[in-house]
Hints:
Elements: E1 3-7, E2 10-13, E3 18-25, E4 33-39, E5 46-51, E6 58-60, E7 68-73, E8 78-83, E9 92-99, E10 105-107, E11 111-116
Parallel strand pairs: 2-11
Antiparallel strand pairs: 1-3, 3-8, 4-5, 4-9, 5-6, 7-8, 9-10, 9-11
Amino acid sequence: QVHLVESGGGLVQAGGSLRLSCLASGRTFSSIALAWFRQSPGQEREFVAVMSRSGSSTYYADSVKGRFSVSRDNAKNTVYLQMDNLKPEDTAVYYCNAEDPEGNDYWGQGTQVTVSS
Length: 117
């Protein structure tokens, strides 16, 4: 089992920045792949960014490429999503996702990000 707790959401003006954090517990942190997803009201949950277990590879959705950056601190069991130049369309609940070596998926409770124009 992997337990995930997100934090760092809030209200920000367009053009501003936020950093989301996701604290993971329950498995060896370096053994899990970590990703961020988001969901706006009435929309499907969509992929935002992913970082490999080793941290050597990252991949981003086209909509956030160049503005968002994912990183992980294995010593703190935490993955981060740095979000810069935020736009109103980035408004959503952001979820942390973990995949363990057996292929099981886990989700955090989500953190709300609201970007005002």
